From TrEMBL:
<feature type="region of interest" description="Disordered">
    <location>
        <begin position="1"/>
        <end position="48"/>
    </location>
</feature>
<feature type="compositionally biased region" description="Gly residues">
    <location>
        <begin position="100"/>
        <end position="112"/>
    </location>
</feature>
<feature type="compositionally biased region" description="Low complexity">
    <location>
        <begin position="23"/>
        <end position="48"/>
    </location>
</feature>
<feature type="compositionally biased region" description="Low complexity">
    <location>
        <begin position="120"/>
        <end position="158"/>
    </location>
</feature>
<feature type="compositionally biased region" description="Low complexity">
    <location>
        <begin position="83"/>
        <end position="99"/>
    </location>
</feature>
<feature type="region of interest" description="Disordered">
    <location>
        <begin position="81"/>
        <end position="167"/>
    </location>
</feature>
<protein>
    <submittedName>
        <fullName>Uncharacterized protein</fullName>
    </submittedName>
</protein>
<feature type="compositionally biased region" description="Basic residues">
    <location>
        <begin position="13"/>
        <end position="22"/>
    </location>
</feature>
Amino acid sequence: MRGVSIHQQQQLRQHHHHHQNHQKQQNHQNQQQQQQQQQQQQQQQQEQRLLVDEFKSMRGQQQQQQQRGVTLSCINTAEKNSAAAAAAAAAAAAVAAAAAGGGAGTGAGAGVGEREKQQEGQLLQQKQHQQQQQQQQQQQQQQQQQQEQQQQQQQQQQKHTHTHTHG
């Protein structure tokens, strides 16, 4: 510090002191933001729980109706239930995210995020619905194959009886 003039030393000290204060302020702001984020997350979790419960009861009623209407017992109901539960959870998460985003009033940026989340939830439901349809189609194809095999067997029997009568 010998080569540095007194004026420069004062400037350095002031600058250092100012820098410390600035950091303290930033730390304080960060803490406040973290607390706010935690509160928002807690709200979202509570809302999600409520919505999941609602969805479960709604889905339960729908499934009972579906099961009454479904005549094909070969559709695995356990797989159907798990797919429906996953779809309900995804939809509930999307709705909760939208509700929390709207409640916090975070503006247009959040609006875009909400729409994306809702679309994701809808896509998940669509995918799972497609999977169910594919399973049903596969089962139908298997049934058709069985029918074809039976027809072939009948044809073989007919040929056999035909040659037998000639003999």
